[in-house]
Give the backbone structure.
Amino acid sequence: MKKLFKLTALLLCVAMLTSTLAGCGMFYDDTPEEVFDPPYLENYYLNKHEPVMKAGGIDVYKYENAKSYSLSMGGNRYNGGVVLRHFVGPLEYFDVEFPLEGQYDYFSFVLGGESCVIMKDYYGKDSYASTEFAMNGSYPTLVGKARELKVALQILIDGKLVEEFVVSCYDVVKRFTYDVKGAQNIEVKAVAGDDGFSITMAEITVWNGEPHETGYVPAPAGNEPVQLIKDLKPYLIPSTSSAVYYPNGGESSDGRNYINMSSVRYENVIATYISQGLMTDDEEDIYFDLEGKYNYLTFTAGAADRTSNNSDGSAWLTVFADGKIIHEEVYSSHELPRKTTVNIEGCHQLKFAWLTDEGNLEYGDSTGNFFGIAEAYVATTKEALDNIAGPSQNFPDRPVKMVSELGAYAISSSVEEAVFDGSTGFKTFSMGGVKYNEGIILIASHSILETRPACVSFNLGGKYDTISFTAGHIANSDVYKNDTIEIYADGVLIKTIEVDCTMLPQEYVVDVTGCNHLEFISGKKTNNSMYRPALGIVNLIAYPDGYVETDLFPKRSPADYGAFCDLIETFGFYDVHSGGHMDIDYGAVDVEDGYYDGSTQKNYFMIGDKKIYSGVLLRTSVHLSFDSDMIDGAIVFSMLGWTALAVLASDEAHESAFALANLKDSGYTSVTFTVAMQQETTIAGVDDETVLKIGADDECVKEITLYKDMEPTTYTVDLGEDCERLLFFLECTLEDDTSHTYAIYDITLNK
């Protein structure tokens, strides 16, 4: 919508400036109402003569008083001039002649590709012919055409060619002065160029004697650095570019007027959304007019922080000084922003361009990602740039929570909300039956062609030598596959963690001495969605002087639950999978998975004529798999040697059913429960006998044969000392059929 508004306004402006017939022109002449004497007004050509249009079209803007029309180009105002246009047809290119009659020594003008016509209204305020150019009313910014247009010009004096050059509608304004002693006329002629292009000649002056500047004269640069965006805004943003500047040039979709890079807030920035990717080689660019006054440029560039989407990658940033490349480098979302200082001596047109059609081979192009340019300064001396103190991150000299205090950024995870910042207990996810409100969920993004790893970054600033965290499998994510988490310090792999999808979350301590950019990456194994588990990283702490015990994240401490307790009421099951149900719920398992937690009277199952509100229903399933590698005997995971999902080459999947409970530090040594057949399966091919296995940590401690029409039967099973993980398991091997549905309820733990 924003681009459409710009283009509509531009067409309106062109329509206002365009005469209706080729070869004809519009002449604007305000009658002076007050004395007005800008510099060298007596030398203004249009106040003395009328140009002769030999081809094309012309609009003439005389400048005689404060309310006369002026022309705005590149953020500066020029006192009157002409706009020259060419058309399609017999008069394809414009050709204008300026009669001189041998009266003058010099002829001077400033030349630009586009302009905005401005006049004072009766209240003394600027009145724009189009709002197209008024991104900031105090400093008009030309938005530009849908594409760069160029025209080849010839300058002829008394019919003799003295100079020819190419002018772009994106060019900075340039001043031209010609010696015309004794000349009868000077001619400006377009001989080639893009259709529909127009140029502006402003402050056309003639005089005798020594040459001198006319009208607008750039002020010399001072000794202090000048900040782009804050002190010097862009003069051009092409309408095809996604570049925007904060503040005043726009704002983000959520109303912010800044961006974050590596968890640091930057204002006065250029923010660019990479929207096209491999579909086009268009540049996302933005232009500044430095007027040749500065010698050095410094800036910080990088990927803007992401917190909830799966867009990442890399893009090229190219910096041009008067069309010459002075900096060209790839910036990745897997790196910290980088500061660069380059020589720009004599530069008039400074251009920043993000190229969208190339990226890093590992992470691909950056489609869908934001990149930023911040802390951009120009100065006459390099020393003037050395003392600039920009925004920086705070690194406390104590153990810190990495997510809520240092900040997580550059998140790529295929989940709507991947970062939990600990600000509320109402936003949590669960691992091993424990809820966490601060941490990261990592799920690789998946398409037909590829899997992109999930990742999260932290800026440690080289201030911490050790980190600790807990990692594990997200409860009830329904993808039961082991995977790895790789940890990189400044791009170097320093640790690989194997995450077992059936194990309880494990604690880790890692040496990160000297690390600035810390990154966790997971999910590189396959592009099969069945093989993309949801992994969690929680309790992240960074230590400046080695690992020490802290109370930043209180641990689940041993408690005296009494001689016995109800398992579901006290601990609950943290993962239940039954009947081939594939549903993702990161907070807790629910009744759809066959889990009834006793929290409501609305959810229950029947055993005979008795309502049961607390228990689990387990049923194995044999069905067609539409998401498998089609490899004979493929196994999603094996727990205690028990297969959770096996797939035949025929794409027939055999799914086991199970329920997992976390008993860590509870002190209970046995479990008592009742089991009965809850429902008969009516589909063909059903096993009338199934084995229920009970696992304590990594050991099978009991096998019970379940059978059709089984009446409620109570069992007590010894779990041994210090059991952390309790498992109820109905296995479905490649030789088994679907089972009946069996209920396990009245589950108590005993000491």
Remarks:
- The radius of gyration is 36 Å.
- The first strand starts at residue 25 and ends at 28.
- Residues 67 and 122 are 8 Å apart (CA to CA).
